[in-house]
Amino acid sequence: MSNYIVSARKYRPATFDSVVGQHALTTTLKNAISQGKLAHAYLFCGPRGVGKTTCARIFAKTINCLSPTPNGEACNECESCKAFNEQRSYNIHELDAASNNGVDDIRGLIEQVQIPPQIGRYKVFIIDEVHMLSQAAFNAFLKTLEEPPAHAIFVLATTEKHKIMPTILSRCQIYDFARITVADTIKHLEYVAGKEGITYEPEALHVIAEKADGGMRDALSIFDQVTSYCEGNITYQKVIEDLNVLDYDEYFGMTDTLIKGDIPTAMTKLNNILNRGFEANYFIGGLATHFRNLLMSRDEQTLPLLDVSERVRQNYHEQAKRCEPKLLYRALKLCNDCDRHYSTARNKRLLVELTLIEVAQAAVGDDDTGCGRRPTRRLKPIFKHAAAGSAVAARPISTTTPQVAAARPAANGTTPHTATAQPAAQTPAAASPANTPSGILATQSTYQQLVAASNNSGKRITHNVKVLSIREELQKQNNTGKAPAATRATQATTAQQPAEKLNTPFNDDRLTYYWFRYAQQLPKEKAATAGRMKSMPLKLDTETWSVKAVVENELVEATMRQEQISLMNYLRTQLRNDYITLHFEIAPNNMPRRATSRLERYKSMLQRYPALEMLRKEFDLELA
């Protein structure tokens, strides 16, 4: 029990060839060693667990090997290699910058740099998590890093390259380590499982590799955890249970439910997932990935882009045949919007449920959208039926309108006879279908359908002229039962008469108030015009309601001409006077101008209060 070593340490690579997933970088390092072209400083950067520190140790061991192999690896037989393997080598120094990030730590490292190696040719200084060094430590390290002794080589390792000073980056050869692919991770896990005598299912190792997210150290740690749970027999189901992840079958089942438009079953599946302890945003992110994989599975050319097992890839290919690209685009857009709004939503579960409902509606054709664009807002079929009903009911109502002919000159110059109210009154009321009991009931039913549809949908229905006619007719029937024809004729004649013009009196104060309000409402690009308007003297003629604005010059007059119509209509509306006219006149040269700038206002005040200048000089004040 005490001799147990975790797999991440037990199977740590000892040679360049055993490093997983970094073939290009290890080949570059091996060639540099064999050709004797070694730099004095290297920077290894990349995600966690991809082999940065491991490659630094292998590099330090290999360059000090006294008899390297023909393929550029250390021999593991010489004294230097044995000292390294037994962890007693004085040629390799490791510094953890996370806990030794001060200037004194770097000064101690610089003192050790001056001591030459006892065995081998180089002393290698490995600084892990170098981005944790303080600003002062970086500055103290610059000179030594740029011009170290011939026997000193620095290897810096970091996961956050962007935090390192540019002056440090310019002094190093930079090696960017990539994430380890799922295939390479699975291959290495199979090797470890074979060494440990553990049986496994390929899909189970695939889940572990995906969970590791490109880090081999994380993959081996998860492998040890799953091995303890499965007792030497790693199965897919046990891995799912131990790691508490949603397997592919959950997403396949949810997608089948949404394609059918079975919203109640989808809500039940979501509730079961949440009851198992999964966060709703974790599920919606996985569902978005599932829809993306379905989109990739529709074409044989993009099918290899899926990092899944062969069985799961086949399931994706079969389900993708039942999903239209339009649906997948729409589903991806909805899931992405849900993920963006999840953090700010108050009812997060409701947000996810609404997303599933929208996907289901898009699947069964209730949503006229496509290709991930914004939904087209249209009324549901219930409103279309109601509008059709209103058109049918409006026809008999139009027959009740009296035939009132306006007096107009005939072709021969004579004036035709104008229809009076008496012939219209002689028309029996029963002859109008809207006045019959069945016509009234039909009209009331149509109007009630429109109101009920508006209340049920929660949307505002824009009533057209026909709907307004229905409501007015119902009000007339409820109040008087039947409106006299003479009254209707009078109303029609009154409606043809033009409205009277407003002529509300106003004074200079009200004119100035609304003049300033208009200037304040002008956009920012017309700020200069607004400033000139506030300084213009106004002259009001209360007999003709003529407003004259005095401008400075012709240029200002031309500018104000562009605002004349808009300004005049605004004043007429606000002052309730349709007789207002607006004119501009250029001010004479001897006319005093209102002070607008701060300097002009100050000079104007000096003319009235000369003591202000003494106050300014006494306290050495300046005009802000």
Topology:
Elements: H1 7-10, H2 23-35, E1 41-45, H3 52-63, H4 79-85, E2 92-96, H5 103-113, E3 123-128, H6 135-146, E4 152-158, H7 166-169, E5 173-176, H8 182-196, E6 199-200, H9 202-212, H10 216-230, E7 233-234, H11 236-243, H12 248-260, H13 263-275, H14 280-297, H15 310-320, H16 325-341, H17 348-364, H18 381-398, H19 421-426, H20 437-457, H21 465-479, H22 485-496, H23 508-520, H24 527-534, E8 538-541, E9 546-551, H25 554-561, H26 564-575, E10 581-586, H27 598-608, H28 611-618
Parallel strand pairs: 1-4, 1-5, 2-3, 3-4, 6-7, 9-10
Antiparallel strand pairs: 8-9
Helix pairs in contact: 2-3, 5-6, 8-9, 9-10, 9-11, 10-11, 12-17, 13-17, 14-15, 14-16, 16-17, 18-20, 18-21, 20-21, 23-24, 23-26
Would you kindly provide a written description of the structure presented here, covering whatever features stand out?
Helix content is 53%, strand content 8%. With 624 residues, the protein is of the alpha/beta class. Helix 14 (280-297) runs antiparallel to helix 16 (325-341), helix 18 packs across helix 21 and helix 23 (508-520) crosses helix 26 (564-575). It has 28 helices and ten strands. The protein folds into five domains: 7-176, P-loop containing nucleotide triphosphate hydrolases (Rossmann fold, 3-Layer(aba) Sandwich); 182-243, Helicase, Ruva Protein, domain 3; 250-364, Zinc Finger, Delta Prime, domain 3 (Up-down Bundle), CATH 1.20.272.10; 379-399 and 431-457 and 465-478, no CATH class; 525-586, Alpha-Beta Plaits (2-Layer Sandwich), CATH 3.30.70. The chain is flat. Strands 2-3-4-1-5 form a five-stranded parallel sheet, with helices on one face. Strands 8-9-10 form a three-stranded mixed sheet. Residues 369-444, 453-469 and 480-487 have low confidence and may be disordered. Helix 5 links the parallel strand 2 and strand 3.
